[in-house]
């Protein structure tokens, strides 16, 4: 269990670092366009410089790419605590994934993202009320529950086979 906690801390720090480094300018923030509240998306769509940079993907493609990316990451982290039985691998991966999901929702989205001027688009930096709607973050959290459940099933099976 101490190894699992250490891995979780490392994973959360890496994830927060990626979020931090992936924000700070309109060009970086536009990559997370879909996670912004509808009010912000409307403002961005009306901006002639930013509108062409909006990259929308279908929810199915997004979910599948998240399974691939996070599946690989959790599989790598799972190699350090793998066991011969599926149940233990599944539970450990589920704890790791759901804890990362909770960290993303509570710390990154609800505390940092909603209160940081770093993620705000030009022209809305002093309009904190536009960024306070938690709806998109909560929906992402719910999707994350399903996402990490699927990943724990797949990676748990893989770890059990390769042991």
Summarize the structure.
With 163 residues, this protein is an all-alpha fold.
**How is the biggest beta sheet arranged?**
none
Question: Mean pLDDT score, rounded?
Answer: 93
Query: What percentage of amino acids are in beta strands?
Result: under 5%
Helix percentage? 55-70%
Structural class: mainly alpha
Rg: 18 Å
What oligomeric state is this? single chain
Distance, first to last CA: 19 Å
N-to-C SSE string, H for helix and E for strand: HHHHHH
Describe the structure.
The protein is an all-alpha fold and 163 residues long. 66% of the residues lie in helices and 0% in strands. It contains six helices and no strands. The chain has helices at residues 2-21, 26-29, 38-46, 59-78, 86-112, 135-162. Helix 5 (86-112) packs antiparallel against helix 6. The protein starts with a helix and ends with a helix. The mean pLDDT is 93.
């Amino acid at each position: 269990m101490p190894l699992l906690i250490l891995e979780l801390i490392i994973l959360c720090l890496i994830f927060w670092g990626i979020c931090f480094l992936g924000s700070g300018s309109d060009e970086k923030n536009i990559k997370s366009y879909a996670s912004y509240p509808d009010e912000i998306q409307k403002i961005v769509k009306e901006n002639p410089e930013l509108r062409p940079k909006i990259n929308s993907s279908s929810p199915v493609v997004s979910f599948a790419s998240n399974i691939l990316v996070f599946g690989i990451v959790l599989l790598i982290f799972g190699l350090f605590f793998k066991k011969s039985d599926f149940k233990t691998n599944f539970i450990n991966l589920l704890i790791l994934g759901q804890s990362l999901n909770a960290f993303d929702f509570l710390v990154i989205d609800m505390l940092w993202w909603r209160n940081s001027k770093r993620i705000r688009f030009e022209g809305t930096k002093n309009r904190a009320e536009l960024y306070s709607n938690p709806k998109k973050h909560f929906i992402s959290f719910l999707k994350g529950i399903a996402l990490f459940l699927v990943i724990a099933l797949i990676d748990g099976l893989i770890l059990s086979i390769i042991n």
